[in-house]
Amino acid sequence: MKKLKIFLYIAFINIIILSCSSNENKLNNKAIEQSPRELYQIAMNNLDNKNYEEASLKFKEIIYKYPLSNEGVQSEIMLGFVDYLGLNYDDAIYKFNRIIKIYPSHKNIDYVYYMRAISYFEQISGENFDGESNREAKKNFQELLNRFPESEYAKDSRQKLIFINENIAAKDMEVAIFYLKQKQYLAALGRYNKVIEIYPKSKFIPEALYRLVEIYTILGMKEEAENAASVIVYNYPKSKWYEHSYNLINEEYYKKNKTTLRKKILNLFKKDEPKE
């Protein structure tokens, strides 16, 4: 009986020791556990050093441990940015869309709209100026400007929109020239009018107006040709297309009237011929 008591006592002591040891480990773990701010700083340091994989892991750790903290939400944004840096644009867009849906009032939400637009913009290629990425980039930059006109990203968004619009206009001009060479005048007319109406500030406007003069002249629509030429004269007097339009209008007038003029001159000579 005495031996049993001694055994139980020893066992009890061991339990206490183990319990204390466990509590001490928990206290040590709590002592070394990093705050969301510390983890976020580590993640940003990795990002600055282009250690994208390590940065991504830290951002995910913050989201897992502190999902409702400021750093947790910001880490979700930065995960999208890491995808963008890695040229994984579709993944980045997916993450930015999710953030906009879940945190529409976040203090940095204008940045998220901007990065979503940039992710589309980076996918535009020389052969894709009128493609989906181009349309989406334009739509998203415009949405950013509509929602946050005073955002620090507004100025660059406006510049990007100018670039996009110029390239869409350039593409339309190429198509219009193709139609013109194929003598598909109405199709060409439609394209040139589209450039003039949708992109009134484009550098291609003077040429598009001249092409209208050219097509209307070919179609025998004198009044329309002169109207288009007058727009060039009034708005672009220093453009080379002003001179081309002037020459075209005068040349056409001469062609249509040269027979009449020749007859008048011959008649004058006939009057002066001596009678036999």
Explained architecture:
The protein is mostly helical. The protein has a domain at 204-268. 80% of the residues lie in helices and 0% in strands. It has 12 helices and no strands. It has helices at 2-32, 36-48, 52-65, 70-85, 89-102, 109-121, 132-147, 154-181, 185-198, 205-218, 222-235, 240-272. Helix 3 packs antiparallel against helix 4, helix 4 runs antiparallel to helix 5 (89-102) and helix 5 (89-102) runs antiparallel to helix 6. The longest helix is centred in the C-terminal third of the chain and has 33 residues, at 240-272. The protein is elongated and about 90 Å long.
Could you give a quick summary of the protein structure above?
This protein is mainly alpha-helical.
